[in-house]
Amino acid sequence: MVVDVIAIVTTTIILGSIYGLVAIGMSLIYGILRVLDMSQGSMVMVGSFVAWAALVLAQVNPLIALAAAFGVTFILGVLTQLVSVQPLVGRASIDFEMVTFITTFAVAMVLVNVALEIFGPRQRNVPPLLAGQVSIYQGVSLPYQSIAMVCVSLGLMLVFAAFLSKSRYGLAIRAVAQDANAARLMGVPIKRLFPLTMGLASALAGVAGVFLGATYFAYPQAGDLPLLEALIVVIFGGLGSLPGTVYAAYLVGLIQSIIEVTVGLTWTLPILYAVIVAILIIRPQGLMGKRSEARL
Amino acid sequence: MQTPLLAITDLWAGYQETPIVRGIDLTIQAGETVVLIGPNGHGKTTLLRTISGLIRAYHGEIRLAGRLITGRSPEELTAGGLIHIPQGDALFPDLLVEENLLMGAYPPPAWRRRHQSLERVYELFPQLKSRAEQPARTLSGGERRQLSIGRGLMREAKLLMIDEPSLGLAPLLIDSVYAVIEEIAKSTTTVLLVEENFKHIRRLAKRVCVLEMGRIVRTGTLDELLNDAVVAESYLGVVRGPKNGR
After folding, report:
1. B238 pLDDT exceeds 80?
2. Does some domain include residue B246?
3. Is the domain of B70 the same as that of B14?
4. Domain that includes residue B74, residue range
5. Is A288 on the interface with B (CB under 8 A)?
6. For A240, which of A54, B11, B67, B74 is 20 to 30 Å away at the CA?
7. B27: CB partners within 8 A, 6+ apart
8. Number of domains forming the structure of chain B
9. Which chain B residue lies closest to A175 (C-alpha atoms)?
10. Could you tell me whether strands B190-194 and B159-163 are parallel, antiparallel, or unpaired per DSSP bridges?
11. Are residues B166 and B75 part of one domain?
12. Chain A contact present for B128, CB below 8 A
């Protein structure tokens, strides 16, 4: 019994942190740009491959691998925004959300196929950043890798929250999310802010990829499942609400780990999705989403 | 002759296919204060929105200090010293009152002086200070207007445009808002106001323009316009009684 509780708690924290890291960027992009960014999953995949290249091919320090994944996906995120979203901003009589949903999805497809071309379909083994584990209770042990993952995820989310609430740029990002025209009247250069935001969001997904690559593998479709999970978390939390996204990430992690421990792995995903459908029917706007109002 | 701060020639603008501003010519010298009056829906707000770049002009040109600004984005223009305090306040509802004010100081030079500017605005509107840590959406209508004007005062302006500063404010506050505008108008800042109520602008306005059907139909000092029977009755709401002759 105690073992079960400990297992549930640790799994919740681990799953929730990584879900949060992938989903928070997606939520931010939706809050500011009204784009449901389908390229976020492929950023996870790119992050995994960068980690693999850095750790296996170049054999560098794990911190450098993290920084490299952050940097590469940041640049890719900026480029994705410039190519697939920026040209559509402010265009009359198009369904912006739908069109960018497709264009960012197209970018994801391109990235997946480029990865396939370069690395081939084989699954690459990404070594953990930290080896070894610590035993915390009879039979329950925690890999250092998981602890590092939780620390990095929480750390990045906290830094990100501080950036949004305290810095001049963060203030501007939140202002744009609420009223883009008013923000422009304040002198906020939204054309530069949009790519920056998408770069940051992608970089968070890229860092998540470093850890997910070690848990699973690095391969071209490695971003598919994280994308799906992030979508669920973001919609569950209330599109565009950052606190809602974080709560939802840990709640999804909690539900998932409870089912895993009590029912078993086979039934985890079907039951998880059934629970989420049930909650969304009761509360369609998500945990903390608001209707037709600015959200950040 | 010195280059005018704002020079508008044959400006046409509007929403989609409907022109609202229909051929406006307006020249404002640096340091001047000009007030736009006229019935609602005849282009005052649209004119301000076009000057600040929120609406693209169909035709005509706008020059700010000699530089052609037609088609420039609002973010470029505000960085260059143009401040537009719009109708409807355009606050950031989920940001705190103080964060809203700080957004007014977004350009780096203003950001460096943000603490002094905050103090000045709080001195002017003590109500805002007591609500500094509340989200802007919790404010009353009058407080919103104060916040919107206060936010506009968080940086220095070459051209300050205010769309109906008195709208929704209690009479006492209107006086203090106008006291501030007068102070600003006395400095080198050029002021362009939209105001419905001529009582407020009596001391302020050297020049009043009457906008009707998207054109400037009359220009003059307030007294000249008050002596013009048509203008006084239609736009300034003055009914001439047979006794006082005015």
Report:
1. no
2. no
3. yes
4. 1-81+158-241
5. no
6. B74
7. B4, B6, B7, B8
8. 2
9. B92
10. parallel
11. yes
12. no
CATH code for the domain of B201: 3.40.50.300
DSSP for residue A55: I
Query: What is the pLDDT, as a whole number, of residue B242?
Result: 52
Last residue of a domain, one of B106, B129, B156: B156
- Chain B residues closer than 8 Å to A183 by CB: 92, 103
Is B75 in the same domain as B163? yes
Are B102 and A171 in contact (CB < 8 Å)? yes
Contact A67, A207 (CB under 8 A): no
DSSP letters for A5-37: HHHHHHHHHHHHHHHHHHHHHHHHHHHHH----
Closest CA–CA distance from residue A170 to any residue of chain B (Å): 11
User: Does one domain contain both B76 and B126?
Assistant: no
A214-225: pLDDT as tens digits: 888 899 999 998
As given in the structure block, the two tokens for residue B65 are 């200090």
CB of A15 within 8 Å of any CB in chain B? no
How many A-B residue pairs are in contact by the CB < 8 A criterion? Answer: 69
Last residue of a domain, one of B125, B156, B187: B156
B79–A187: do the CB atoms touch at under 8 Å? yes
Contact assignment for B78 to A172 by CB distance below 8 Å: no
Q: Which of A171, A179, A189 sits opposite B90 (nearest CB)?
A: A179
Q: Which runs of E-coded beta strand occur in A101-144?
A: 133-137, 140-143
Asked if the structure places residue B126 within a domain, the reply is: yes
- Please check whether residue B135 lies inside any domain of the structure: yes
Q: What is the pLDDT of residues B123-178, one digit of tens each?
A: 888 889 999 999 999 998 888 888 998 999 898 888 999 998 888 788 888 888 88
The reply to whether residue B84 touches residue A185, judged by beta carbons under 8 angstroms, is: yes
Is the same domain home to B176 and B132?
A: no
Burial bucket for residue A120 (CB in 10 Å: 0-12, 13-18, 19+)? exposed
Q: Do residues B18 and B1 both lie within one domain?
A: yes
